[in-house]
Amino acid sequence: MSSDPEAHIHHPNYVKIWVVLVVLLIVSVLGPLTGIRWLMLVMAFGIAFVKAYLVAKNFMHVNLEKRWVTYLLVTCLVFLGILFAGVAPDVMKHQGLRWENYAAKKAVESGSQASAKHE
Amino acid sequence: MSSRSIANIRSVTGIPTARLVTWWIIASEIFIFGGLLVSYVMHRLAHPEWAIAAANTNTKAGAFNTFVLLTSSLFAVLAHQAADAENGKKAAKFLRLTSLGGAIFLIVKGFEWTHEIKEGFVLSSGGFWSFYYTVAGLHGLHVLAGLIIMLIIASDAAKNRDLPRVQCIGLYWHFVDIIWIFLFPLLYIAK
Fold first, then answer.
1. Residues of B with CB below 8 A from A47's CB?
2. What is the pTM for the complete model shown?
3. Which of B167, B178, B186 is the best substitution to test chain A (most A C-beta atoms within 10 A)?
4. What pLDDT digit, counting tens, does each position of A54-102 carry?
5. CATH code at B6-189
6. Deepest of A12, A45, B119, B167, by most Cβ within 10 A of its Cβ?
7. Rounded CA gap, B10 and B17, in Å?
8. Which residues lie below 8 Å from residue B32, measured CB to CB, with a gap of 6+?
9. Is residue A78 exposed (0-12), middle (13-18) or buried (19+ Cβ within 10 Å)?
10. What is the model's pLDDT at position B4?
11. Contacts of A35 (CB under 8 A, 6+ apart)
C-alpha cells in the first residue's frame, strides 16, 4: 500500500506565486532597456534561476519529495557541469600552443559577414 | 473515492511508481535539454557572430510565450490541488486549460517560425539558427506530447479515474516550463 509522503500536502497560494513569476518575467524583459549589457545578462539569467527555483519548489514540490529525488536531480546537474568543464576548453578556444581550429575561425568570419549582409 | 491503477498504488521506494517514473523521465530530460543548452552556451561564448544572429529573434513573442507557459503551469498545479481534494471534474477543467496554454504556445511559435523562415533564417543559416530550431523544436515537441497526454488524463479525471496521474503530468509540464524559462533569456534576451 502507498506510504506517499506527499499524499495530502498543504497547498500554498499558487496564484500569489504565479504573480511573483510574472513580475520577474516583466523585469527580465525590461532588462535590455537599461542598455547595460552585464546588468541585462545578470538580470535575465539570475531571474531565470529564481523562476526555476520557484516553480520547482512550489509547483513541483521538490522539497516535499523523498530526499533522494533531490539527489537524483542534483547528480544530473553535476554531470552537466562535468560535461561543460570537459568540452568547453576545446569548443571555446580556437587556437592553442601547437594547434589552430581553422573551421571555427572561418565560421566566426563567415558568420559575421552573413549576419552583416542580412542587416 | 477515485479508482487507482497499480502504478499509483505500488510504492516500493516510498514514492508511488507512476510518480517515480516521472522523476526518472525528468532526470533523463535534464541530460537531453541540459546537453543542448550547455553546448549552446559554449558555442555562444566562442562565436560572437551568434549575437548578431540572435538579434533577429522576436522578444515580444518569446515573452508572451513565457507568460503563457507560466500561466499554464499555474493551471497544472491547481489541477493537482483539485485532484488531491478528489474533485476530478475541477481537475479535468484545469488540465484542459493547461492544454489550451500549450496550444496557444505552439500557435505563437508557428507564426514566429513562419516569419523567421520567410526572412531567410532557416536551419542551415548558421550555428545559431541551427541550435535555435533544434532546441525550440524539441521543446515544442515536448509541449505537444504533454498537451495530448494531458487531454487523455483529463478525460479520465473527469470520471474521477486515476487522479494521482494529474500530479504526474503536472510534474512533466512544470519541467517543460522550467526548460523554457532558461531558453527565453538564451534565445531572446541575450543579444
1. 185
2. 0.90
3. B178
4. 999 999 999 999 888 999 999 999 999 999 999 998 888 888 888 888 8
5. 1.20.120.80
6. B167
7. 6
8. B138
9. exposed
10. 64
11. none
Residue-level pLDDT at A2: 44
Greatest CA separation for chain B: 59
Domain ranges of chain A: 1-65, 67-119
- Please, are residues B184 and B63 in contact by the beta-carbon 8 Å criterion? yes
What are the boundaries of each domain within chain B?
A: 6-189
Q: Which residue of A has its CA nearest to B170?
A: A60
pLDDT at A7 over 50: yes
Cell, residue B17: 511508481
Helix (H, G, I), strand (E, B) or coil at A100: strand
Task: Measure B92 CA to nearest chain A CA, in Å.
Answer: 18
pLDDT tens, residue by residue, B78-121: 999 999 999 999 999 999 999 999 999 999 999 999 999 999 99
Interface membership of B161 toward A (CB under 8 Å): no
The reply to whether residue A40 touches residue B11, judged by beta carbons under 8 angstroms, is no
Dihedral of CA atoms B182, B185, B187, B191 in degrees, nearest 10, equals -150
Q: What are the phi and psi torsion angles at B190 (to 5°)?
A: -75, 95
